[in-house]
Amino acid sequence: MAARKQYPRIEPAHGLLYEPNSLQMSRPVDQVDNLLEEVSNYLKNPFNPRQEEAFRTSFTQRLSLLWGPPGTGKTTVLAGIILGWIEQSWRSGNPIIVGVGASNYNAIDNVLREVADLFQRLQEHQGNPPGHVRVVRLRSQSAKPPLDGRIEDVARTTPAATSLASAIHERASCIVVGGTWQQLGRVAQAVSGNNTPVAGWFDLLVLDEASQIPVAHAAAYFLLMREDGHLVLAGDHKQLGPIYGFEMRDSAQGLFDCIFSYMQETHGIDPVALDRNYRTNTEISGWPRERFYSEGYEAFFPERRLTIVVPPATGRPPAYWPANLPWTDVFLRLLDPELPVVVVSYGVHTSTLSNPFEAQMVTALALLYRRILGPSGQGPGDHEFWTEHLGIVTPHRAQMSTIRNLLVDAAGMPMDPPPFVDTVDRFQGQERDLMIASYVVADRDFVAAEEAFILNPRRFNVTLTRARSKFIMFVSDAVLQHLPADADVARDAAHLQLFAENYCTSVMEEVTLPYLESEKIREMTCRLRGMRDLK
Amino acid sequence: MLLGLPIPHDYSIFETANTLFPVRNENGDTYEFRLPFGFTTPMSDQIPFERAYELWQDTIFLRHFDSRFPSNPWLWRRYTRDELYEGIKHATSTHLRALQHVVRRLREHYRDRLILRKAPFHAAPPAQTRIPERARSLIAFEKLNVACQEIENRQRRALPVEEREAHFFSIRGLSPAIGAEVDACIDKIRATDARFAIAELRTFAFAPTSRDARINDGDFLLALSNEDDDIELDVPWRNYLGLSFPDAQTLLSTAGLNDNWMVNISLGRMLQVEVVRLEAMREPPYLVLRPGHSGLFRFAIDQGLLNLQRPLVLDPLFQDFSSERVAQALQAVGGNPPPMRRRRRRD
């Protein structure tokens, strides 16, 4: 039989995309444990066994998958892997180029910042390292430069981009370069000489948040690797996926989902699953562990609580409480640190894109928490408050706007910095001590119209797991009791609905919450569910 | 464009084709798209799947209507396998001909109002046939995504200006801003960012109700237009002035704009701006814009396509940055295309 004609291909991109198992040659590196020991000197906390395994496989496998559920130290491990590779290159005397990619600049900067932190600690420990390392982020002309001054900013259309490409080509020193597939690809194309986005640059390519990277975009990154380059994909396919104009019902084994799912489902690549959660306490992590992470999601800080002392209930509002925000002692109960998970549900009404009742409750809790953390002028600054202590998530922009306006107009909070109220998509990769979720929609027909969006399990998983110490959720019965007609959506909806109804059962009370409507105080009868102390 | 037809319930493809400028012969009789019993589904465009199932199972229940025994269907003759096969083929081609009829009539009668001009969509044009099947699927998937995003963008811009603002898509109520604060802001921008040192920058105050719009510093896929103008940003600018290509070329050259690509560009491209600074929390809120092309932007003002004295609105545009690059990348990755499939002859 005649041999089949072989068409041209670029390696390792072709192998990674179509036959990654053929690349799975184990290449033992004698010094991996020694490198791990060296890198451990500069880590804030030593790696746990799964993290060590991830470190090792990045050397011994051409392609390794790192499954990092929320708060399991995925970014830290990636930075440790990059430092390990650079340490190895210093030992061998051959400088390497490391590529860092993701679907957005924030995720890229997170990795580069961790890398910069590690190098800083390395320098503090041993003075000047054996070689120079540049940490660079390539961006489009209109994108914002990195906030961290340790990360070199290069705009693609400037001469600095051409000189970066030359430096990569010359390999005089190690370079860690981050960028989107489009920006890196365009520089590669400009210097390729044959107008193709192909460049044998990266000895190691690290793609963070790979569960948000479409397969085709990942393929464009693969074209930038050296023929013997290694690839590390880190992600969590249980969190938010790529944003598409439409969703394919059948993802064709991950082909139309993300590169992380594609490698698992199409090629059967087993990820190293990080199993220790350094972010949330036991009560918050219990639900994701039960529903999403059966392989393990053990809380490293099981008893993490809000470090606040809630004042005793007096039946009267505190002296600072604004007149245009109704008060109830129930607010104190909702903020109780010993009740780490709280769900407040209420009856069906007509709210769709914004919900004044929920907005007032969220505003009241935000103000109370702010004042408990420190009286006016004391405690954390506004920036710290919104970046460390409190996050407010809501699915609709109209509700974001309503809450922000109330925080400024009713609660007297400053406009600058603006209160961090956003959609969950903007929160992925971030964490706060307290997260408040406002689900807004209380109209049955509207819930039915957007059921796949509002009851999306990945979205709920990310919302819940942003919280370090406490999670409060406002949701209507229209959402909790909605039964989707589509079996798949109904199955997915259970992640959110059963969280309230089956998981938060250690506290079940009926409470009455006051709110303003047409300048009159009204009362909403709500069900307070909670999960406390799983010990 | 929204087209209504005198159809009582259901706009099936046959109902639509038979109502929308139907084909008439010399006697005035109309040609009707229709199919025999068993190949249509009431209130739907679906060809009954039972026909395919019967063919697949080789167990045929469908019978030919026989006018001699109208109420005794068991006396009607069953379809043969070949008749059923031909029937499905005929049903499929009749559907496609009906669709083609609708498309042609729309094009003939409403061509000037059909403004969505796109290159023909090919899931796998010839240039992509020599790449692996998965790469072709990914390219088709990317193109579909881009098409969806473009349609979404156009649908948003088709909303009334109040709704565009209420959905946070657009910033409205813009009017030129002057004063010490905006001057200081511009001076700071010029001093701190070399890109804008000598660029044309324009400041506009806007409605406080637009503060939360999904528009940020650095966004450049935006166009400025008058709120009260009924304009379509995707249409070539010269259409609004009723100019032929040579006349538009001449008019442009009088303004010192001599590139041929400028003659046919869309109005949106002519009015494109970049947000250099957005001060949404100021009172009143304001922003600093840089025109995408200063010459074209000024030309648009001079020709009355944009009137800065009337309220303005800033709308998002769409541009496809990815589908071509994805195709390029997957072609570069290479690999074997799927083996050619020989079409099997049916006995």
Structural class of chain A: alpha/beta
Q: Quickly name the level 1 CATH class of the largest domain in chain A.
A: Alpha Beta
The geometry of chain A reads as globular
Radius of gyration of chain B: 29 Å
Sheet of most strands of chain A: 8 strands, parallel
Explain the overall architecture:
- The complex is a heterodimer of chains A (535) and B (347).
- With 535 residues, chain A is of the alpha/beta class.
- Chain A has two domains: 13-272, Rossmann fold (3-Layer(aba) Sandwich); 303-531, Rossmann fold, CATH 3.40.50.
- Chain A contains 20 helices and 17 strands.
- In chain A, helix 8 (215-222) links the parallel strand 6 (202-207) and strand 7 (225-235).
- Chain B is of the alpha+beta class and 347 residues long.
- Chain B has two domains: 13-114, no CATH class; 167-316, no CATH class.
- Chain B contains eleven helices and six strands.
- Chain B has helices at 13-19, 49-57, 81-110, 133-157, 161-166, 180-192, 237-241, 245-254, 267-270, 294-302, 323-333; strands spanning 171-176, 202-205, 222-226, 272-279, 286-291, 312-316.
- In chain B, helix 1 (13-19) packs across helix 3 (81-110) and helix 4 packs antiparallel against helix 11 (323-333).
- The two termini of chain B are 48 Å apart.
- The relative contact order of chain B is 0.11.
- The chains are: A alpha/beta (535), B alpha+beta (347).
- The A-B interface holds A 4-10, 13-14, 17-18, 141-144, 181-182, 185, 196-198, 214-217, 219-220, 222-223, 244-246, 248, 252, 255-256, 397-398, 400-401, 404, 415-416, 418 and B 130-132, 134, 137-139, 141-142, 144-149, 152, 166-168, 195, 211-212, 214, 217-220, 274, 281, 321-322, 325-326, 328-330, 332-337, 339.
